[in-house]
Amino acid sequence: MTKGIIAKSLCITILLGSLAANLGAASARKLVRQGNRAYKAGEFDQALAKYKAALMEGGDPRVVAYNLGNAHYNLSESQAAQDAYMRSLRPAKPEELAGSLYNLGNAYFQSQKYPEAIFAYIEALKRNPNDEDAKYNLELARRALRQAQQNQEQQSQNDEEQQDKQDSQQQQDQKPDQNQDDERKRNQEQEQQQPQQQQQTQPQEQKQMSPEEAERILNALLQNEQDALKQVKKMQVVARPKREKDW
């Protein structure tokens, strides 16, 4: 009799646990659907809150993490998006894994982590070799990395030149007073010669620019501005509409 009571109690406990789990999963799915609707409406903060609540309710960690990454990315929260996409990289179908890797690459690119973005795009292409957007973004990341390296080299060179100028100026400041007197004399001679030079150059300064010349310069400036805008547009990755995952 006692054994029968214990067995029934154990069975009831299992049933209750299973029921609670089912209720939690149903609640999580509902929260994910609500988050997806908010995401499609562009309400990314609200979507983020729903996805986090779904995770607390026991939602599928891989699915919810993917959706969290999408919401963080659209809020320009690059690091949080990267962390979420990394959590979504669990055993899955190749096309789903390729999508997560692609989005991870975009999140890396957004935070200017170009080597990591290149790696993510390459891994995405391994799972989906026909992904033209991934190929485009991969080349863009490589170009951005080269540009960043060139900028760093140029900055280093500028720093060295600035340091050389400072050293030279310090040496000039330490010269004897005689050198300073010589410098003053040279300046006085230049000031005396300056009026004559101004008279010689005055006719040239009075020459006016022709309308044709002005139009040519203006067109050149406008063309340079258009070229610059094209370069800026080229430095933006292709961010495809992200499919919110349900389950």
The CATH superfamily label of the domain at 91-155 reads Tetratricopeptide repeat domain
Largest beta-sheet characterization:
none
Number of strands: 0
Rg result: 33 Å
CATH topology of the domain at 91-155: the name is Serine Threonine Protein Phosphatase 5, Tetratricopeptide repeat
Descriptive key words:
Serine Threonine Protein Phosphatase 5, Tetratricopeptide repeat; 0% strand; single chain; mainly alpha; 247 residues
Topology:
Blueprint: H1 2-40, H2 44-56, H3 61-74, H4 78-87, H5 94-110, H6 114-127, H7 132-173, H8 177-205, H9 211-234
Task: Report what the structure shows.
The protein is an all-alpha fold. Among the domains are: 27-75, no CATH class; 91-155, Serine Threonine Protein Phosphatase 5, Tetratricopeptide repeat, CATH 1.25.40. 82% of the residues lie in helices and 0% in strands. The chain contains nine helices and no strands. Helix 4 (78-87) packs antiparallel against helix 5, helix 5 (94-110) runs antiparallel to helix 6 and helix 6 (114-127) runs antiparallel to helix 7 (132-173). The chain is elongated and about 90 Å long. The two termini are 44 Å apart. Mean pLDDT is 76; it is low at 1-6, 14-21 and 201-207.
In brief:
With about 250 residues, this protein is an all-alpha fold.
